[in-house]
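W.,

You were right to be curious about this one. When I first looked at the sequence I had no strong expectations either way, so I just let the prediction run and decided to look at it fresh. Below is the sequence, 275 residues in total, followed by the output.
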Amino acid sequence: MEGKALQLQSEINRKRLLELVFKAKAGHIGGDLSCLNVLTALYFNTLNINPSNPADPDRDRFILSKGHCVEALYVTLEARGYYGRELTDTLGEFGSVLSGHPTIDVPGIEVSSGALGHGLSVGVGMAIAAKMDGKAYKTYVLMGDGEQGEGSIYEAAMSANQYHLDNLVAIIDRNHLQISGNTEDVMAIDSITERWTAFGWDVRSIDGDDVNAIAKALKEIDFTNGRPHLLISESTKGKGVSFMENVAKWHHGVPNEEQYVTAIGEIECRINELN
């Protein structure tokens, strides 16, 4: 899927995300919206996966290290056919298998995550396992930019370079805002490019607000160059909902009914334009 079809799928997923967070009355909606394009590009254009056989040993692996944005992953997995709306709609209900962070009880989820800084280390292990087993599958890890303050990430980064893990792709959702404010005020991480290049990674900055640009960058990765790969996805917190964009308080929040109607209206307008 590419072009207008991929854009349309992203907007459909965005609308479903708003529905889900509003119904559940909980969610990290700002980061959900900023990383939704990456998830759409991965699941509808890049990943070698089979929703009817989630445990296929040759499948590509995906880890949502920024696990608090699981609502975006839930709607993406639903749209890709891992399960139906009847499961997704149980988010926030007593006894639901869906929780506020990813768990392996949910079809399509590889790793229980949410304790920030751990996802890349697990991804390194998966990529090493693929090399040892002679498997062709790739491992993708999506991290937050606020998460970059976790020291374990850099231990994993060094290991990935040491073992020449060119079958590993890390993505940073660079929306510049974390729960405490701007990343550069809380714990400065620029220049990300220079930092990760020094660790021996193949680094590229991309437009995280353009789902087709993301898909193109993923397709252009050279999996034979002997280096792990990092995509810095320059995105907008709250992308696609005007009153949420670049507003730190929407790191976590639920729109009221008036805000919900406004947000859905904006998204439906774009859906109609793409149809």
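Here's what jumped out at me. Strands lie at 61-64, 139-144, 168-174, 177-178, 181-182, 202-207, 229-234. And, maybe more interesting for your project: The two ends are 15 Å apart (CA to CA).

Coffee later to discuss?

I.
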